[in-house]
Specification:
There is one protein chain. The protein is of the alpha/beta class. The protein is 34% helix and 24% strand. The chain contains eleven helices and 13 strands. Strands 1-7-6-4-5 form a five-stranded mixed beta sheet, sandwiched between helices. It is globular, with a radius of gyration of 19 Å. The structure holds acetyl coenzyme *A. The site of acetyl coenzyme *A has 24 residues, from helix 2, helix 6, helix 8 and strand 12.
Length: 323
């Protein structure tokens, strides 16, 4: 049986840092409110002209280097993003060109904050069926481009960045299982400006699609849904909570992360938290957190890791991994 194993991770954050103190000068908010309600202290923001594929490229190169691979080894390239460079070509094709890869399938996946887990799930199937042997799976976002910087309810949350993994065919188990879900019935709670008779043409004329979120309602559903998916994942593997060494959650809000950690009975020392420094980077958040904990030596080969995410759609998903 062919298994799919993560053999390298990488990430990249744009240099510019926006602190809570910076935001205090932009909207009516406070460092205390943002820290207490979200856990965020600062976030990275792309420079003007720096596109999603520009963040994805260094993350991808770092993951390839960690795996001991070169771009021409890649036979599948998937980019999870909500903020593509253009409507088309896909960001995956634009990244493929930057990396000098020719001929492999390359496509984007749009599942908002769950995008990386979706992409990992798809890549795993390619590898397990023998359709690919070396996949580059990336989550990359320039969410700052679709944030309404006058809306204090959302602008303090979102940020930019990229994370990547190399997934290879292996005789040893790697990805134990993935679980992905969606329910479009909740689209109105977390969305961007909708086209239609009530659309604000001024917003569309700017070429922007601002994030609109009913945060409190999203919060409650996210906590409950993530609690359910944790059970689904552990049950499917015939494991118990005690078998999990590390939780690498989507980094939306420290309170949501703490709720999942309590559910798993996993101390916060075994939970990778980057939301304080990175904010919510949507599809990039899980691979960014994974790479952070791999590079600082916390996550080691052989560890059992649970990845989970929840986002617009609603979409939600998880992956159980033997690293
Ligand atoms: N600074 C100060 N006050 C604020 C701010 C701010 N930045 N934002 C909102 N407030 C105020 C509100 O106006 C409200 O004031 P009121 O009581 O006078 O009406 C008060 O703070 C409380 O607002 P709530 O929305 O109830 O605050 P809550 O504790 O729910 O925190 C937050 C808001 C942080 C957005 C939280 O609800 C959350 O994290 N939601 C989930 C986000 C998420 O997980 N999204 C999914 C992934 S993202 C994606 O897919 C793109």
């Amino acid at each position: 049986m062919i298994h799919a194993r993560i053999t390298g991770t990488g990430s990249y954050l744009p240099e510019r840092i926006l602190t809570n103190q910076d935001l205090e000068k932009m909207v009516e908010t406070s460092d205390t409110w943002i820290r207490e309600r979200t856990g965020i202290e600062q976030r990275h923001i792309a420079e003007k002209g720096q596109l999603t594929s520009d963040l994805a490229e260094p993350a991808a190169r770092r993951a390839l280097e960690a795996a001991g691979k070169i771009p021409s080894d890649v036979d599948l390239l998937i980019v999870a993003t909500t903020t593509p460079d253009r409507v088309f070509p896909s960001t995956a094709c634009l990244l493929q060109q930057k990396l000098g890869i020719h001929g492999s399938p390359a496509f984007d996946i749009q599942a908002v904050c769950t995008g990386f887990v979706y992409a990992l799930s798809v890549a795993e199937k390619f590898i397990k069926t023998g359709a690919a042997r070396c996949a580059l799976v990336i989550g990359a976002e320039t969410l700052s481009r679709i944030v309404n910087w006058q809306d204090r309810g959302t602008c303090v949350l979102f940020a930019d960045g990229a994370g990547a993994v190399v997934l290879e065919a292996s005789e040893e188990p790697g990805i134990i299982s993935t679980h992905i879900h969606a329910d479009g019935a909740y689209e109105s709670l977390l969305t961007t400006v909708k086209p239609g008779p009530d659309v604000d043409l001024d917003k569309l004329a700017d070429g922007t699609a601002f994030i609109e979120m009913r945060g409190n309602e999203v919060f409650k559903i996210a906590v409950n849904t993530l609690g359910r998916i944790v059970d689904e994942t552990v049950d499917a593997a015939g494991m118990t909570y005690a078998d999990i060494d590390w939780l690498v959650p989507h980094q939306a809000n420290i309170r949501i992360i703490q709720a999942t950690s309590r559910k798993l009975d996993l101390p916060m020392e075994r939970v990778v938290v980057t939301v304080n420094k990175h904010g919510n980077t949507s599809a990039a958040s899980v691979p960014l957190a994974l790479d952070t904990a791999v590079r600082d030596g916390r996550i080691k080969r052989g560890d059992t890791i649970l990845l989970e995410a929840f986002g617009g759609g609603f979409t939600w998903g998880s992956a159980l991994i033997r690293f």
